[in-house]
Amino acid sequence: MAFISVENLVKDYRINSRKKGLLGAISSFLIRESILKRAVNDISFTIEKGEMVGFIGPNGAGKSTTVKMLTGILVPTSGSISIGGLSPYRDRKKNASRMGVVFGQRTQLWWDLPVSDTFDLLRYIYKVPEKTFKHNMEMFNDMLGIGDFINQATRQLSLGQRMRADIAAALLHDPEIIFFDEPTIGLDVVAKEKIREFIRFINREKGVTMLFTTHDMADIEKTCNRMVIIDNGVIIYDGTTNEIKDRYGRERSLIVDFGENPGDICLEGVTICGEGEKKKKFTFNKSEVQVSSLISRLTQEYSVLDLTIREPEIESIIREIYEGGIDFDKSLSGICQEVVSEQRSLQN
Ligand SMILES: Nc1ncnc2c1ncn2[C@@H]1O[C@H](COP(=O)(O)OP(=O)(O)OP(=O)(O)O)[C@@H](O)[C@H]1O
Ligand SMILES: [Mg+2]
C-alpha cells in the first residue's frame, strides 16, 4: 500500500452571505443565509515513501485546503486519507510526531521570542533527544545559516530568515513526511535556491517524503520529478515534470542569423517571422517538422552565421494549461467542465 493514499477527497466550505448596509446587516443577523463552496472535488492520488511531489494550480484551486486536510488541520467533507495507515485528523497526535508542515504565508515560530527559544520549546513538545537536537541544529546552521539570527526575536527577522527558521523548525523532530505550502513565496533568487538545495538534500539524505505547493515553476523543475496539477478542486494532471513538457510543449523556435538577407523563405509546417533583415525566427511543431532536417536545409541553401533552438519553458506550458488553452484528454476536460457547472449550481 502507498505511504500516502487519498481517495475521493471532498471539502465544502460554508460561506455566510451578508447583505449590504445597516438593514442588510440586521436581516442577515436574523436570517442566516449561506452558500456552499466546493474547494476540493473528489480527488484521489497516492504518494510513495521518499517521493517528492510538486502540487500546483492557480489561485483558489484547492491546494492549501488539500494540505490542511492532509495535515489534520481540516476534516474532509467526505473521502478518505491514510498516511502510513493513520488518519491525519482522527490520529492527529500520533501523526504530528512524524509530520512537519511549513505554511509560507504564516509562521509557526513564537512571534516575540528569540528563534532559539522556539527551538527549545519544539524540542520539549516533540521530545527530541539531545543528540538529535544537537545534530539537527548543526545541520540547520551549516545549510540554512540560522546561527546568524538565532538570538533575534521572530518579529525582527527578514522574510528570508523567517522562512529558513520555519523550515528548520518543521524538521527539528526528524519527520518522515513534510508538507510545504509555498515555502519560497516572496524570496529573492539566492534565498530561493538555498531553500531548494536544502529541500533536495533532506529528501535525498533522509528520505523524507514531500508534498510541495508553489507558484514558482522553477521550484518544481529543480526539486520534483512528479507534478500534480489541481484546478477548480479537480486534479487535471498527475505525471512527471518531463512528460508534461513532452506532451504539451511541442512548439519549438529556431532563431537564425544569416550572413545576408535570405529574402522570402517558404518551408512546409514552419511559420517564419523576421526579427531583423538578417535574423529570422522559425516556429514549428516538433512532431511535424524535424529540427535536424530544417537546419541542414537552411545551412545548405543559405549562409548561416548562428543558430539558437528554443524550447518552451515549463512556465509558459503551465500558463497555457491554467488559461485552458491546452487540449487535455477529452475525459479530463470533461471532468473539468462538469466540476465548473456543479460549482455554479452549488453557488446558486
Ligand atoms: N476558510 C474558508 N472558508 C471559505 N472558503 C474558503 C476558505 N478557505 C479557502 N476557501 C475557498 O476555497 C477555495 C480554495 O482555496 P485554497 O486556499 O485551498 O486555494 P489555493 O489553491 O491554496 O490558492 P492560492 O494559490 O491562492 O493559495 C477558494 O475558492 C477559497 O476562496
Ligand atoms: Mg494556498
UniProtKB/TrEMBL annotation:
Gene3D superfamilies linked to this entry: P-loop containing nucleotide triphosphate hydrolases
Keywords on record: ATP-binding, Nucleotide-binding, Transport
Domain of life, per lineage: Bacteria
GO molecular function, one term: ATP binding
Domain ABC transporter, residue spans: 4-257
Protein name: ABC-2 type transport system ATP-binding protein
Organism: Anaerobacterium chartisolvens
